Amino acid sequence: MKTIAALAIALLVASEALAIGNVGSAKVIQVRLDLDGRGMVVFDQPIGGTPAGCVHPAYTNAFAFPANAAGKAIMAWAIAAKLSGSLVTVYGRGVCDIYGGAHVEDWLYGVMQ
Protein backbone atom coordinates (compact mmCIF):
# COMPACT_ATOMS: atom_id res chain seq x y z
CA MET A 1 0.00 0.00 0.00
CA LYS A 2 2.87 2.39 0.77
CA THR A 3 4.34 1.66 -2.66
CA ILE A 4 1.10 2.58 -4.41
CA ALA A 5 0.82 5.82 -2.42
CA ALA A 6 4.44 6.73 -3.18
CA LEU A 7 3.91 6.01 -6.88
CA ALA A 8 0.77 8.16 -6.97
CA ILE A 9 2.59 11.08 -5.32
CA ALA A 10 5.55 10.71 -7.70
CA LEU A 11 3.24 10.78 -10.72
CA LEU A 12 1.48 13.91 -9.47
CA VAL A 13 4.76 15.71 -8.87
CA ALA A 14 6.15 14.63 -12.25
CA SER A 15 3.04 15.68 -14.14
CA GLU A 16 3.14 19.13 -12.50
CA ALA A 17 6.83 19.51 -13.32
CA LEU A 18 6.18 18.59 -16.96
CA ALA A 19 3.10 20.80 -17.32
CA ILE A 20 3.20 22.99 -20.38
CA GLY A 21 0.62 25.31 -21.78
CA ASN A 22 -0.91 24.87 -25.20
CA VAL A 23 -3.52 26.36 -27.44
CA GLY A 24 -4.99 24.52 -30.42
CA SER A 25 -6.98 25.63 -33.46
CA ALA A 26 -6.68 29.24 -32.37
CA LYS A 27 -6.26 32.49 -34.25
CA VAL A 28 -3.62 35.11 -33.53
CA ILE A 29 -5.40 38.32 -32.56
CA GLN A 30 -2.42 40.44 -31.52
CA VAL A 31 1.37 40.51 -31.72
CA ARG A 32 2.97 42.70 -29.04
CA LEU A 33 6.55 43.93 -29.25
CA ASP A 34 8.16 45.81 -26.37
CA LEU A 35 10.97 48.37 -26.54
CA ASP A 36 13.51 45.84 -25.23
CA GLY A 37 12.61 43.36 -28.00
CA ARG A 38 10.59 40.91 -25.93
CA GLY A 39 7.12 40.22 -27.17
CA MET A 40 3.88 38.31 -26.83
CA VAL A 41 1.54 36.56 -29.21
CA VAL A 42 -2.09 36.82 -28.10
CA PHE A 43 -4.70 34.26 -29.19
CA ASP A 44 -8.49 34.24 -29.43
CA GLN A 45 -8.76 31.58 -26.71
CA PRO A 46 -7.06 30.89 -23.38
CA ILE A 47 -3.92 28.79 -23.00
CA GLY A 48 -4.61 25.45 -21.33
CA GLY A 49 -2.22 23.53 -19.08
CA THR A 50 0.02 26.37 -17.96
CA PRO A 51 1.63 25.64 -14.56
CA ALA A 52 -0.18 27.22 -11.64
CA GLY A 53 1.20 30.59 -10.62
CA CYS A 54 3.03 31.09 -13.92
CA VAL A 55 0.67 33.51 -15.64
CA HIS A 56 -0.83 36.86 -14.66
CA PRO A 57 -4.63 36.89 -15.17
CA ALA A 58 -4.27 39.52 -17.92
CA TYR A 59 -2.16 37.15 -20.06
CA THR A 60 -4.06 33.86 -19.97
CA ASN A 61 -4.28 33.81 -23.76
CA ALA A 62 -0.66 34.72 -24.65
CA PHE A 63 2.81 33.24 -25.04
CA ALA A 64 6.03 35.29 -24.68
CA PHE A 65 8.98 35.27 -27.07
CA PRO A 66 12.55 36.53 -26.49
CA ALA A 67 14.55 39.39 -27.96
CA ASN A 68 16.86 37.27 -30.13
CA ALA A 69 16.95 35.72 -33.61
CA ALA A 70 14.47 33.00 -32.60
CA GLY A 71 12.16 35.69 -31.24
CA LYS A 72 12.26 37.55 -34.56
CA ALA A 73 11.30 34.34 -36.36
CA ILE A 74 8.41 33.78 -33.93
CA MET A 75 7.23 37.35 -34.46
CA ALA A 76 7.30 36.97 -38.26
CA TRP A 77 5.46 33.63 -38.01
CA ALA A 78 2.80 35.13 -35.74
CA ILE A 79 2.27 38.15 -38.00
CA ALA A 80 1.90 35.83 -41.01
CA ALA A 81 -0.65 33.75 -39.10
CA LYS A 82 -2.60 36.86 -38.10
CA LEU A 83 -2.62 38.36 -41.58
CA SER A 84 -3.66 35.09 -43.23
CA GLY A 85 -6.26 34.27 -40.57
CA SER A 86 -4.74 30.79 -40.23
CA LEU A 87 -5.52 28.49 -37.34
CA VAL A 88 -2.49 27.70 -35.19
CA THR A 89 -1.45 25.28 -32.49
CA VAL A 90 1.20 26.53 -30.07
CA TYR A 91 2.98 24.98 -27.08
CA GLY A 92 4.74 26.67 -24.20
CA ARG A 93 7.87 25.75 -22.25
CA GLY A 94 6.11 25.42 -18.90
CA VAL A 95 8.04 28.39 -17.45
CA CYS A 96 7.53 32.15 -17.31
CA ASP A 97 11.12 33.43 -17.61
CA ILE A 98 11.01 35.93 -20.49
CA TYR A 99 8.96 38.51 -18.60
CA GLY A 100 10.62 37.73 -15.27
CA GLY A 101 8.24 35.52 -13.35
CA ALA A 102 4.50 35.18 -13.04
CA HIS A 103 3.39 37.08 -16.15
CA VAL A 104 3.19 35.02 -19.35
CA GLU A 105 4.38 31.53 -20.31
CA ASP A 106 7.37 31.27 -22.67
CA TRP A 107 6.89 30.05 -26.28
CA LEU A 108 8.24 26.60 -27.22
CA TYR A 109 6.92 25.97 -30.74
CA GLY A 110 3.97 26.57 -33.01
CA VAL A 111 2.33 25.03 -36.07
CA MET A 112 0.27 26.94 -38.62
CA GLN A 113 -2.57 24.84 -40.05
Q: Calculate the terminal CA-CA distance, rounded to whole Å.
A: 47 Å
Shape: globular
The CATH architecture name reads Beta Barrel
* Rg on CA atoms, Å: 16 Å
Beta-strand proportion: 25-35%
Task: Count the E strands.
Answer: 6
Write the element-wise H/E pattern from the N-terminal end onward. HEEEEHEE
Mean of pLDDT: 86
Q: How many domains? A: 1
Helix content: 25-40%
State the major sheet. 6 strands, mixed
**Within the CATH hierarchy, at the fold level, what is the topology?**
OB fold (Dihydrolipoamide Acetyltransferase, E2P)
Quick structural summary:
It is built from two helices and six strands, in the order αββββαββ. By secondary structure, it is an alpha+beta fold. The protein has a single domain (20-112), classed as OB fold (Dihydrolipoamide Acetyltransferase, E2P).
Features:
six-stranded mixed sheet; 2 helices; 6 strands; disordered N terminus
Molecular structure report:
- The chain has 113 residues and is α+β, with helices and mostly antiparallel strands.
- The protein has helices at 2-17, 69-84, and strands at residues 22-26, 28-33, 39-43, 62-65, 88-92, 105-112.
- A hairpin with a 5-residue loop joins strand 2 and strand 3 (39-43).
- It starts with a helix and ends with a strand.
Topology:
Layout: H1 2-17, E1 22-26, E2 28-33, E3 39-43, E4 62-65, H2 69-84, E5 88-92, E6 105-112
Parallel strand pairs: 4-6
Antiparallel strand pairs: 1-5, 2-3, 3-4, 5-6
